[in-house]
Specification:
single chain; five-stranded mixed sheet; mainly beta; 166 residues
């Protein structure tokens, strides 16, 4: 009798195990839309990645009942969230913490998404100031999109998103 292959015997990723049964990428139904793509080193979409965000609320406070969202990517590597713009936390510019889980990664990669309309706050953010290369710093700032913000994550290669040690 032949038995079926189990996930522990095959190569993943199996991120759908960690995805919510109900949509968990909406913190506010009428909130700010953040969309983007996860791209590999050749600029091709990663259709089986998972993106998580962590954030403070509008007052700049981290709460146990607010601030976490998760979204799997579709066949085009696309993800989206509906959220509220966070307030400043401890002198940092408003931002989202972004974790990306993808094939080929032993651990998720951590980055941040900053807001394009916060030039003054972004200019004095300690983390952004610590990045000498303007191009690398620019990968952390979302761009305006038709119905919200766009934030693409490039895992490697030209235009690679700046990532931080976990």
């Amino acid at each position: 009798m032949a038995l079926g292959v189990t996930p522990s015997q095959t190569v993943g990723p199996f991120f759908w195990f960690g995805l919510c049964e109900r949509p968990c990428n909406v913190l506010f139904t009428d909130g700010l839309r953040v969309e983007g793509q996860v791209l590999d080193g050749a600029g091709e979409p990663v259709p089986d990645a998972m993106v998580e965000t962590w954030q403070a609320d509008e007052r700049g406070e981290y709460r146990t009942d607010f601030g976490w969202a998760r979204c799997g990517t579709d066949l085009g590597g696309r993800f989206s969230f509906r959220t509220a713009k966070p307030g400043r936390v401890d002198g940092q510019a408003p931002h989202l913490e972004v974790l990306v889980f993808a094939r080929g990664l032993l651990k998720p990669v951590l980055t941040r998404m900053y807001f394009p309309d916060e030039a003054e706050a972004n200019g004095v953010d300690r983390l952004l100031e610590a990045i000498d290369d303007p191009g690398a710093r620019g990968t952390l700032i979302a761009t305006e999109a038709a119905d919200g913000l766009r934030f693409d994550v490039r895992l490697q290669g030209d235009g690679q998103t700046t990532f931080f040690a976990l």
